[in-house]
Specification:
By secondary structure, the chain is α+β, with helices and mostly antiparallel strands. It contains twelve helices and 13 strands. The N and C termini lie far apart (about 40 Å). It is found in: Cytoplasm.
Length: about 325
Amino acid sequence: MSVLTPSEIAALGKVGVLFGGRSAEREISILSGSGVLQALKSKGIDAHPFDPAERSLAELEAQRFDRVFIALHGRFGEDGSLQGALELLGIPYTGSGVMASSVGMDKITTKIVWLAHGVPTPKYAVIDDNSDLAHLDRIVAELGLPLIVKPPLEGSTIGITKVTRKEDFQAAVDLAHKYDKVVLAEQFIEGREFSVPLLGSGPEARALPIVEIVAPQGNYDYQNKYFTDDTQYHCPAPLDAATTGAIQRHVENAYRALGCEGWSRIDVLLRASDNAPFLLEVNTSPGMTTHSLVPMAARAEGTSYEDLCVQILRSASLKQGQVG
């Protein structure tokens, strides 16, 4: 772990670590933010916690933070709404700007952009409140079984169902509808599961070492993701150089296509039948818990958790530019 000089600490100023929030991922955000806060303090940085679910934007402005580290996940923290408020308040922040955060939060819009840029992603269908059984039957005929049903605006595997029988499709849609008005049905890709963190912006953005995820019975759900030690992680992933390079090129293209900045994490499936990669989604404010994959990939390159937090914090900026 590197040591910051007094001038480097002073240059970062007063820092707010935003975590908690009002999304379904609040619990994980608190774990992420608490870790980030402790890491920054351990480096001598003047860092302070701030929970937007408990304190107002007026209070955020009154704190006169020089920059903020966004450790919020999901709605009202990762979806562009907070980013817009920070732009208006003139407070530099970590991660992507308003547009990339908003697009990245919506898995359907993400797919539309990726397909336009030649990024491989599973075939999909959209299900709204007016969809009937005939529509669901057509989706099964098009995508096949099994298929994945998920709310497009949630993360952390919340509301996701793997449908293996047609008669279970409606129940899966009903579960996803509890979170979103529109539901995403996605072709199931049988194969290995990976996640690829990225750092940087524009042409300087780069993929970190790939993480392979091996979950119990292949079920990488909320519990296995955050609260058990049964899931295995291999980093760098045991892949040949050609496959590693291909996956990293795809995720870098996908990251730039969405206009992401600062840092993100993109989830990937590698189809067993032909080793073809398929990109699933982007997380523009990834987890920073003890089980999280961005710190894991950084460690594989020799970067400590604390140094990673400082590196991300240094990238904080206003994306729209100063006016007046």
